[in-house]
Amino acid sequence: MTSVPLALTIAGSEATGGAGAQADLRTFAALDVFGIVALTCIVSFDPQADWEHRFVPVEPQVISDQLEAITSAYAPDQLPTVKIGMLGTPATIETVAGVLQQRQFRQVVLDPVLICKGQEPGAALDTDTALKAQILPLATFVTPNHFEAESLSGMTITSVEELTEAARRIHETSGAVVLAKGGVHLPGDEAIDVFYDGTTTELLAAPKVGDVAVAGAGCTLAAAVTARLAHGDSPLEAARAAKEFVTAGIRARLASQAPFDVVCQQAV
Ligand code: PXL
């Protein structure tokens, strides 16, 4: 018998494997966590159409069935940690919010994936609104990127000071620990993330690796936070470890015929 920690990711499949559930599972494995997936959607980039997203949601009933199997197999104490990735539709959000309310996970790490290219703008707006109203209040830890931090805080963010203010505002409205990511979107030689938990503000900085965002970085960072929380780290320890993990994965990135490099968790 083994006592490895377990973690669940409720996420989409991205067929090339760079982002989504595949990146989450590789991160969990690299950080010695037994990973479990409930799949919310399937994204297949279209190489014939400029690698646009093709998006197919999983039926809400099938999402419920997966979560029923998972929460029946593993007691709350055995599986206290969940990561939420791409949900993609208001119906999926409704289903997942219902399960999160029923089963009180100790740690709910939300990567607030807002707009996925290839979705109808109208549909995406409904999805964003539903995510903010129904999932964000249930999160204990949230990892917005630059765009998502602007959307969740209602601010324009052009500096670390503004990113810090946005992290504070997002904490105030959600109650969650916030790790707001500047990535390549703020000026300077460093990729800076802001950690804020209501008392502690800490800047996590790493030298920028190029100036183009690498696919899967957001998923990997949030999955690494989830994995470290599953091991018993404090939120700040988990954030620091996750930043190191994703930086190493970006340095070791994998190139392909697709027009973006992806984070490689194995070379860490
Ligand atoms: O990186 C955001 C993301 C998350 N999950 C899935 C995705 C993407 C972006 O493509 O496809 C399934």
From TrEMBL:
Protein name per UniProt = pyridoxal kinase
Record key words, sorted: ATP-binding, Kinase, Magnesium, Metal-binding, Nucleotide-binding, Transferase
Q: What does this protein do?
A: Catalyzes the phosphorylation of hydroxymethylpyrimidine phosphate (HMP-P) to HMP-PP, and of HMP to HMP-P.
Under the heading Gene3D superfamilies, the entry gives: 3.40.1190.20
Keyword Metal-binding in the entry? The reply is yes
Report the EC code(s) recorded for this entry.
2.7.1.35
Pinpoint the Pyridoxamine kinase/Phosphomethylpyrimidine kinase domain residues.
Answer: 16-255
Which reaction is recorded as catalysed by this protein? pyridoxal + ATP = pyridoxal 5'-phosphate + ADP + H(+)
Species in which this protein is naturally found: Ornithinimicrobium cryptoxanthini
